[in-house]
């Protein structure tokens, strides 16, 4: 086996090195030099647009005079619409979408918006806009010949299954010819699979927009250019993997809000109530300590004396180090609260129910408390539909949107909302 792998891997490595050495140098002024900032971001993302494109597109619009860049007292960069932004005749589709996003975030309360507030944070409001923004950037890159469209998911899996069946049929036919033929065929096909794994860019593991040869040359030129740092995405981007990665469903996060006519950041509590620090957990720990200690004492064995003394100490360490701080955090939250706040995030997610088979859509909102700068997350409504039905409930889904002012009677400690009433709705 090693004798079969060694020469082929060595030949592949030598071929790759020589191929890199014989590649012609990239031209100094390639045609891709005049690409728009989101298209360059797509090249850095290997065919995928990342949230970094929002910032670079804003800077391009500032340079074009459509936006005005300003800074708050704490240094936060903000953008403001200029009179030239009303004329959209010479704008690309994604630039028009960004200006619409700025208008939506400003509304009637503020006249500027931080660039960070244009990204993920307001849930469905962002994700619906983001899909259209990505699609418009990919359409322009496709027209320029830089990417190829994504293959259909079913076609991708059909090709993979056909390849696996062909490989299995080949090995089955070789097994009929004898064990030696089967071993040689397996070694040869395994080596091919390893080499295909090295060239993962040519044979991607998932279906998606792929760079063409012209796109790869343009991406290589931009990575080596002097402006590469301005377009390179950060290592960790919030919301780049889908809407669920930008929502406060599990963990708390910080969200921009313009409530009371000023931009500020609010801490959003998670949707799920705290799971540690409950009284029943204290009872279980106490019963476990008493039962274990009694069982060890009743055995009347000297070897267990150290263990019998260590169990209460261990339980005490768990109580003092883990349970008690969590219990204090739970009781620091108000059991009941009534306030007037603003919706700062809106999203929904779906679960399933087995008996009878049905899907449950959970409609959730994060509502800011104006005094504490804290946003509480609640499940406002839910609706059921059969397992294979496409029926939805638009009135419930469009009941609230980001920016609506509401009166809330809730229990932040248990993440339960008792009553919610619309006070002032933003333009739909």
Secondary-structure map:
Layout: H1 2-22, H2 37-44, H3 52-63, E1 67-71, E2 77-81, H4 93-106, E3 113-114, H5 124-143, E4 147-148, H6 153-177, H7 179-198, E5 210-211, H8 213-223, H9 228-231, E6 253-257, E7 264-268, H10 279-298, H11 305-332, E8 337-353, E9 358-369, E10 374-386, H12 394-397, E11 405-411, E12 416-424
Parallel strand pairs: 7-10
Antiparallel strand pairs: 1-2, 2-3, 4-5, 6-7, 8-9, 8-11, 9-10, 11-12
At a glance:
This protein has 428 residues and is an alpha+beta fold.
Give a short account of the largest sheet. 7 strands, mixed
Number of helical regions = 12
- As a percent range, the share of helical residues equals 40-55%
Order of helices and strands: HHHEEHEHEHHEHHEEHHEEEHEE
Helix/strand structural class: alpha+beta
Sheet with most strands: strand arrangement: 6-7-10-9-8-11-12
How many β-strand runs?
Answer: 12
Mean pLDDT across the residues is 79
- Report the portion of residues in β strands: 15-25%
The termini sit apart by 67 Å
Unreliable residue stretches? 1-31, 200-205
- Tell me the overall shape: globular
Oligomer: single chain
Rg result: 29 Å
Structural account:
The structure is a single chain. This protein has 428 residues and is α+β, with helices and mostly antiparallel strands. Helix content is 44%, strand content 20%. It has twelve helices and twelve strands. The chain starts with a helix and ends with a strand.
Output the keywords.
428 residues, alpha+beta, 7-stranded mixed beta sheet, 3-stranded antiparallel beta sheet, 12 helices, 44% helix, 20% strand, disordered N terminus
